[in-house]
Amino acid sequence: MTLLAKRSMIKEDKSNIITLGAIAKEEKKKDPSVTNATIGMLYGEDSKLFAFESVDKALDNLSTDEKYAYAATPGSPLFHEAVKKWIFREYYDSMKDNSKVMATPGGTGALSNTFANYLNEEDYALLPNYMWGNYKQCLYENHQSFKTYNLFNDQGGFDVEDLKIKMLEAKKNQGRILFVVNDPCHNPTGYTMKSFEWDMVIDLMNEMSEDGTPVILLHDMAYIDYAKEGFSYTRSNIAKYEKLNDSCLVVMAFSGSKTLALYGVRIGAQVAYSKNKAALEEFAKANKFSSRSKWSNPSNLGQNIIVKCFTDEAYKKSFEDELKEASNTLVKRAEAFLNESNKVGLETLPFECGFFITIPCLNPDFVYERLVKKKVHVIPMGNVIRVTISAITMEECIKLPKLIKEAIDEK
Ligand code: PLP
Q1: What residue spans in the chain does CATH classification 3.40.640.10 cover?
Q2: How much distance in Å is there from the Cα of 254 to the middle of ligand 1?
């Protein structure tokens, strides 16, 4: 007998990231020579969790109210402006009035709210076939489901053709389209879309919505500030939203966990962009309702740290410098890992930058077991294993490809 409601009986967090991450953490505690390449957080070359000094300083200088008082459900106007300035940067003046912000507990809160308010029950979202698995759980929780589009075409580029096919089907089946793009530094592959690929996505959205069909792009930008091309490239892609027509809405899911390494503070935001002013008003109303019902109000502490780091000149410059350094560390680790992979003939999925590198293999669970025996912990998922280069040192990045290749080839 179960006391659970019908839909809850099959609820089980199948994501092995947290479970295997916890095992790896325990193993490393017992034996520091263990490599823990599991969890999506940034670690320094000293194998300690990385923290920004400017973030620490901002936290130290918050008043009691700024830290502990209840926040307003949508977040504060100062936070909204800070996030807009950060995300739009040089395009702030032209984009700010066509956007609205809702503070959320991390990018996850932003994703969950967006699914809840832009799909009907029983509708499905379009997700990339390689993905951060929690999208699926957010959808199930909202009584919704998903279909996938191919992330890569035969040339290893973004598969706009397949996205179009899946969009046409969704339009026919449910009269609306909600699709997720996780860019730049896609989790788990590390792919970053080219500028022309973004142009094609924007054209496709306009084409699909020409007859008034609602087209919603949920842009998961968790890793936006780690793109090796830098702020100007990532923001120039965001500026392309200005070309979208009135039936389109973009909701960007911003993560304070990744940009500021505030993982446990739980702060992020939905940033809606549309030329349709009524759509923005509806966005604010419906998402405020959802936030109030799910978490009541977001972290005040997280919001106020962000306001300082994004807008107060005393913190902003040093925060940006530190962020560039953190991002460079990742670039160097990736170069080392890929160089060694080349040497030993280890194949990876298309990669540009970011926290993860993904390796295709036939039996990821076996590869995982074999690697554990070699004191290496990675995440097996679908038909790949994911290596978190953000969590390991340069030395480990050099060492790992050979060990992984041996584990894959072992008979
Ligand atoms: N999106 C992607 C692709 C992620 O990898 C993560 C976290 O790992 C998130 C969103 C959500 O992170 P958070 O809720 O901590 O902001």
Answers
A1: 55-314
A2: 9
Q: Is the pTM of this model over 0.70?
A: yes
Per-residue pLDDT of the chain (411 residues; tens, 9 = 90+): 899 999 999 998 877 888 899 999 999 999 999 999 998 999 999 999 999 999 999 999 999 999 999 999 999 999 999 999 999 999 999 999 999 999 999 999 999 999 999 999 999 999 999 999 999 999 999 999 999 999 999 999 999 999 999 999 999 999 999 999 999 999 999 999 999 999 999 999 999 999 999 999 999 999 999 999 999 999 999 999 999 999 999 999 999 999 999 999 999 999 999 999 999 999 999 999 999 999 999 999 999 999 999 999 989 999 999 999 999 999 999 999 999 999 999 999 999 999 999 999 999 999 999 999 999 999 999 899 999 999 999 999 999 999 999 999 987
Residue nearest to atom 6 of ligand 1 (CA): 222
Q: Probe ligand 1: pick from 112, 151, 187, 271, max atoms within 8 Å of CB?
A: 187
The 8 Å CB, 24+ separation contacts for 28-31 are 28/377, 31/375
- What residues does 67 pair with on adjacent strands? none
Q: Kindly give the distance from the C-alpha atom of residue 30 to the centroid of ligand 1, in angstroms, as a whole number.
A: 28
| CATH number 3.90.1150.10 given to 6-52+323-409 | yes
Tokens for 279?
């759509």
The CATH fold assigned to 55-314 is Aspartate Aminotransferase; domain 2 (3.40.640)
What residues are in contact with ligand 1 under a 6 Å CB criterion? 40, 106-108, 132, 182, 187, 220, 222, 255, 257, 263, 268
Q: Which atom of ligand 1 is nearest to the CA of 268?
A: 16
Ranges for all domains in the chain classified under CATH 3.90.1150.10: 6-52+323-409
**What token pair was written down for 270?**
């939905």
Residue 147 CB-density burial (10 A; 0-12 exposed, 13-18 middle, 19+ buried): middle
